[in-house]
Amino acid sequence: MKRYSAFAIAREAARYHTGWERAWASPEPRARYDVIIVGAGGHGLATAYYLGKTFGITNVAVIEKGWLGGGNTGRNTTIIRSNYLQDPSAAIYEKARSLYETLSQDLNYNVMFSPRGVLMLAQTHHEMRGYQRTAHANALQGVATEFISPERVKEIVPIIRLDGPRYPVLGGLWQARGGTARHDAVAWGYARACSDMGMHIIQGCAVTGVRSEGGRVTGVETSRGAIGCDKLGIVVAGHSGELAGMAGFRLPIESVGLQALVSEPVKPCMDIVVMANTVHGYMSQSDKGEMVIGGGTDGFNSYTQRGSFQHIEETVRALIETFPMISRLKMLRQWGGIVDITGDRSPILSKTPLEGCFINCGWGTGGFKAIPGSGWGFAELMAKGRSPLTDAFSLDRFREGRFIDESVAAGVAH
Amino acid sequence: MLILHCPHCGAEAAETDLTPGGQAHLRREGPGASDEAFEAYLFQRDNPKGVHFERWRHAYGCGKWFIAARATDTMEVFGTYPAQTSAPPRELLDRIAERRPDWRGRGEA
User: Fold this and answer.
1) A123: which of A45, A342, A359, B72 is 20 to 30 A away, CA to CA?
2) Rounded CA separation A386/A394 (Å)
3) What φ, ψ does residue A273 adopt, rounded to 5°?
4) What GO molecular function terms would the record report (chain B) (predicted)?
């Protein structure tokens, strides 16, 4: 792999950019691999990357039904934060956030991580108490957050209206090293690094069945023939239930639609991410100047990658109350993704009833920010059989009542 | 916007008049049930990409619960029926089978 650098740009400029190579190869699938990962989104590719980089397992294939990063990795609002209440959540999200800090250098691919700061508004007394508690918990967990006053909120976000009619801003939970990253680049960067390690990324290849022998996984059937493996990692977000069905077990997961939208581009007016969870809306400004807006999930199961119109209306109505200056913005486009929501709204990174088969799912509405940490933990789980990062997120917590009371992936703003 | 026929009051109810209630026809486990059975009752849900049976309440209408058979991949609605039953009506199942010959039945994804 040729490294990207300022020198490479100069070199290619001098020869009409004829020397750039493809970022990743598209090989024919082999008959078997040590590890197959189903799903070439951020989580799947990150898993493959850390399997190779940290645990030396490079005979890996990542199989993708559609195209690389074409699911929720390309559909989210790119927010990165780790200000969670419970220890297991804070640990895996902070691992992810800290890996994002150096991901561009690590991958030699600019993922445009921008630690611009994430502010979660407290707009009810309940939220005040909740976020103060979170700030205290974060101090103990080593996650840098602070609870700030409305005056400080106004200082950080001058366009905000503090004294809204329904929900005045009473304070905020501020994570200065949270922010955003370029979502596609995260998938592309991991894919390029995986391909460089000799892993196979096989796009346009749908898994149609899971093969097993004596309770142990032996491979998958795909639209391009059967492929054998020792270990199988299912990392397919909204379609987890479908894959679990092929592997012969059920999940505490329902798939629902979640929407986002962006406005026409405007001049820079807000240089942080603001989340208003009481009114279900959150907003940031992209480098192109568009206001990126995310809202709530639908209340019913869906695989259609579109959502109900009234959720957009609710979200925009709430944001206009908080940011009156956006009231005349035209919306450029709107889209939906299918998110997998678990019984306790926290993810599942776990062994499964089928030996050798592992599942990483249930990230619901908050998956993008977790990609590097999720990949790291899941790779360790697959390579060694357990990982301190994923212990609490096992499937059997539902039977044992060990829920993670977090609403990490709740059907609200993330 | 999703529009469902309320089998109680006969209204064509828009999504904003309705409250979703999750998977229909769950069987409640009682005392003495195994941990597995109770886990399945509490948390494990049908999540098919296709025909799904789900509970709805006509919240801003007559206030009553009913069940809808809907395709989660196309949003096609096959029919609705009152919630006071433990299984879908035969004629509705026939209608679904006619529209979706490959459908393997409820709970079979």
Assistant:
1) A342
2) 10
3) -105, 130
4) sarcosine oxidase activity
pLDDT for position A62: 98
pLDDT tens per residue, range A35-44: 999 999 999 9
Chain B residues touching A299 at Cβ < 8 A: 19-20
- CATH number of the domain encompassing residue B93: 3.30.2270.10
Neighbours of A387 (CB within 10 A): 18
Residue in A298, A299, A398 nearest the CB of B39: A398
Contact A309 B36 (CB under 8 A): no
Nearest to A302 among B45, B72, B109 (CB): B72
| Chain A CB contacts of B47 below 8 Å | 241-242, 251, 253-255, 301
User: Which one of A178-187, A237-246, A272-281 scores highest in mean pLDDT?
Assistant: A178-187
Specify the number of domains making up chain A: 2
Q: Identify the CA nearest to A374 among candidates A167, A92, A60, A146.
A: A92
* A203-238 per-position pLDDT tens digit: 999 999 999 999 999 999 999 999 999 999 999 998
Contacts of B29 in chain A (CB under 8 A): none
Q: Does A104 share its domain with A205?
A: yes
DSSP state of A109: S
Q: Tell me which chain A residue has its CA closest to the CA of residue B2.
A: A308
Across the interface, whether the CB atoms of B39 and A399 are under 8 A apart is answered: yes
β A146-148/A32-38 pair status: unpaired
**DSSP state, residue A249:** -
Q: Do B75 and A302 touch (CB under 8 A)?
A: yes
